[in-house]
Every structure is written in C-alpha cells, then in structure tokens.
Design goal:
By secondary structure, the protein is an alpha+beta fold. The protein is built from 16 helices and 12 strands.
C-alpha cells in the first residue's frame, strides 16, 4: 500500500505523457509495461508499414495521389484520428503516473508545468496541423480551380496543307532486307497500341495571360501560348501566338465561322472577350469565352485543343512577390508607365537599362507589359523570360514551404476548363515530358508577317515542329532570357 504522504520517485507525469506522445508506449515503461509493449509494437508496426508502402510508390503515383480529393480527405481524417489517439495515449499515461505520485502543491500549476504542457502540445499538435493545413490547401485549390463540369475539345477544320516540298512529299523508306520466313517454333508478338488522349494523338492546352482589371470590361489575352504533348511519347512543343494578329478564323460550320467567314476582324487578344460578349456564337458550352479562344487557336494551328488555362496579371504579381522577386537579364532599355491594376493603385513606372535586374511583382509586370519603343514580339519574349525565371529560381523546398499561400493565390487568379477527374491523367503524361527538349516556336517577323494571321503557314510550321524540324530562326529569341557568356 502506497503511503499518501510519501512522494513516489520516478518521472514527472508530463514527462511520461510527452514520451508517449512522441511514440505511444514509451512513457508507460515502469508503470504499465504490458500496455507499453502493446502500444510500441502496434505503433512501430503501423509506421513501418506506412513508410514502406509510401516509399515503394513511384513519384508519378504520389503526384497523382496529391490531386485526388478522396485521398486528400482521407489524409485529413487520418491526421485528425491519429492526433486524437496520440492525445488519448498521452492523457492515459499522465493519469496513470499522477495517481502513483503525490505532487506537492497539487492543483497549482507551476511555471515549469506550464512550459511542459506547451511543449507537449506542440509535440503532439504541430505535425498534424501542418499535414491538415497542406492537405486542406491542396483540396481548396483543386475544388476551386478545376471546377469545370463540362469541357469540349475543339477540332480544327481540315485544310489543304500549304507547306514546303519536304512537308508535302513523304520521305521514301530505305530498302529493307527480305523478311525471313518465320520459324515454326517462333512465338508471335503483339505490339502495344500507341497511347492517345480521348482518341487524339496529342494533348494540347492553350496557356493564356489575361489583362483583366478593375477599370476594364472583359479579359484580353495578351499572352497566348499553345502547348502540345504527344500522348504516346511525351514529346512536347510550345507555340507563341502574337496577340496582335487579326482575322483568326473558326472551325467550319460553327456560328462564329458563319458570322465571320474571312476571320474575326479584331486582334487575337480580343477573342476571349468575344466569347463573353456573344455566347450565342459558341453555343451549348459551359464556358463560351474559353471555347472561343480554343476554337480560334485550333483553327490556326491545325491541332485539336482540349483545354485552356488563364492566369490574370494580379496572380502573376502576387506569385512573384511571394517568392521575394525574380532576377531577370534585360536586353533592351525600357522607360514606360503602366496603368494601375487595382482600384486606387499607383501607376507602374518601369525604367531599366540592359543588364541584370531584380524585379518585384509589379516591376516584373511592367516589364512584360511595356510596349513603348519595342514590339509585341519582344514583349512575347519578355513574358516567357519572366515565367521561366519564376520557375527556375525557386527550389522545390521553397515551393513546398510557401505552398499554402501559393495555392491560395492560384485558386483566386487561375481559371481553367480542365476537369478535376482528368488531372491525374495529365500529371501522369506530364511526367513523360523532357523539359530540356521542348521545341519552342515564336511566330515572328520576318518568317511570319504582321497583320492578318497566315493560317496555312502557321499550320505548316506547326507540322514541322512536331516532326522535330523547326528552323533555328523561330527559336532564337529564347536565348535572350540569359546573360551573354
């Protein structure tokens, strides 16, 4: 029988609780060893099984899991349940040890006890809170951005190809040796069918940068890039379309094509707004504005376009500021003032000379939007350089640490018609892309004229790029993103 006036030697109840909070069962040793063994064996077995299972999954599989709302909800529920279990075990050992000790000044919280309680709470709560925070941020991003209920791909009209002779005449195959007769013992093999995206050979997405603002009606897509990926091989190409081309046409037989058989008379960056203003020209779709720009770009490039992604300029500013700005090599002097992007905001003054510069979000926006003293074609290159700098100059760890804030920015400033239930397939396909071998084509003078869009010539250039025969003149501007060596 324990003398109630004698203090039993041993660890403090909070110490025991902290040990069992870190690994259930550790704090029970010396008080309830049977329970300690059971808790430790169960905990270690469960953690080992979980780590083994996750570590044997491929990176692609883990990425696919990250875009599954069901799995994210399971992660959140699992984190809450595990937190409650750890708290229950910690409370259990605290109560067990407290009953075996007679603490002086019982019922009075000493400062040291408060510190221990705070430390214990952090040990137990913080890891679970982080998991819940990141999973919740990802879940919000998915459900807000990828909310399209219906998406329709746009197929271009078949047009007689006008191209160079090499494109029109197939290369004759080299003569091959006679095929030997099959051996009676040979086992026939079956070639795997090439992968497709809903029957199409390529997945093609329009990437758009919009200039919508508080003082403007609609959105003008000043940045227009068409990215196309071979669904079987992962070979990718990117096509930069000038915002100021006119007379882009629409697929045959559509209301927009009947309305403008010779092409839409306004410039390309107005087509998204056309869909907003005149949805009857793009009927039976959930998103007429997005469908309008997909229709025009599909007809221009000759590629079926399945989806689009649009980011507005405030989103770009916030993303750059979130990572502390970007370093950019400027190739031309710029002195310009850009109109405010928020109500009550100040104009953006951009004054830079050639050389290396560090830009915050607003300065970077002024840099990519300035047209004074230069052309839209130079601005296309500046836009690409800023986006590349934002991606290249931030490590995966920085992205991870700031992901909750980044996901909130993305969910507020990015719009797309990519359905959530196809996101896992897109991620799997993107993992096959070699980013160092993406073919980039800029439709710039003198190869491509100003004014009206040369649809036949663009289609021929796209066909060349997809065969890997793009001329160097069309990709030379990519080098201007880097300082000369």
């Amino acid at each position: 029988m324990v003398n109630p006036r004698r203090e039993v030697r041993g660890r403090h109840p909070l110490t025991a609780a902290a040990l069992s909070a870190v690994l259930p069962g550790f704090g029970h040793f010396g008080y309830n060893n049977r329970r300690a063994y059971a808790l430790i064996i169960t905990s270690v077995a469960a953690m080992t099984a979980a780590v083994a299972y996750v570590s044997t999954r491929s990176a692609t599989t883990l990425l696919i899991w990250s875009v599954s709302p069901t799995r994210l909800r399971l992660v959140i529920i699992g984190a809450v349940v595990l937190l409650l279990l750890r708290v229950a075990v910690a409370v259990d050992v605290y109560m067990t040890v407290s009953k075996m000790r007679l603490l002086k000044d019982q019922g009075v919280l000493r400062l040291w006890s408060v510190v221990r309680i705070a430390a214990l709470s952090a040990i137990v709560l913080v890891p679970h809170a982080l998991v819940i925070q990141y999973a919740s941020a990802q879940l919000r991003l998915l459900t807000r951005v990828f909310a399209a209920a219906e998406t329709r791909a746009v197929t271009p009209s078949p047009v007689v190809r006008v191209t160079v002779s090499e494109a029109a005449v197939p290369t004759p195959a080299a003569p091959s040796a006679p095929t030997p007769a099959p051996s009676p013992d040979s086992v026939p093999t079956t070639e795997a069918l090439p992968q497709t995206w809903d029957g199409a050979e390529r997945l093609t997405v329009a990437l758009l940068g919009g200039d919508g603002g508080f003082d403007r009606t609609g959105v003008r897509t000043d940045t227009i890039i068409v990215v196309s990926i071979d669904a079987d091989t992962g070979a990718a190409a990117a096509f930069n379309v000038p915002r100021n081309w006119r007379h882009l046409t629409f697929p045959d037989g559509t209301p927009a094509a009947l309305r403008w058989p010779d092409g839409y008379p306004e410039i390309a960056n107005e087509i998204h707004g056309l869909g907003q203003r005149s949805p009857e020209l793009f009927p039976d779709v959930e998103d007429p504005a997005g469908h309008a720009i997909k229709s025009a770009l599909a007809e221009l490039t000759g590629l079926p376009i399945q989806y689009y992604v649009l980011i507005d300029m405030q989103g770009l500013v916030k993303a750059i500021d979130l990572f502390g700005g970007i370093d950019v090599y400027v190739t031309e002097a710029i002195n310009d003032r850009i109109r405010p992007i928020t109500e009550g905001g100040s104009p953006i003054d951009i004054v830079v000379e050639p050389g290396e510069h560090h830009f915050d979000g607003l300065t970077a926006l002024g840099y990519v939007r300035s047209r004074r003293g230069s052309s839209d074609y130079h601005r296309m290159t500046r836009q690409r350089c800023v986006v590349e700098a934002l991606i290249d100059q931030n490590s995966p760890l920085e992205m991870l640490l700031k992901y909750p804030a980044l996901s909130d920015t993305v969910s507020k400033h990015v719009h797309t018609d990519i359905p959530l239930d196809r996101l896992d397939e897109m991620l799997a396909l993107s993992r096959t892309v070699d980013t160092s071998r993406i073919v980039t084509v800029n439709f710039i003078p003198p190869e491509f004229p100003r004014g009206s869009a040369p649809t036949a010539k663009v289609r021929a250039a796209v066909a060349q790029a997809l065969r890997g025969t793009t001329e160097e003149a069309n990709v030379s501007l990519a080098e201007s993103c880097r300082a000369p060596t």
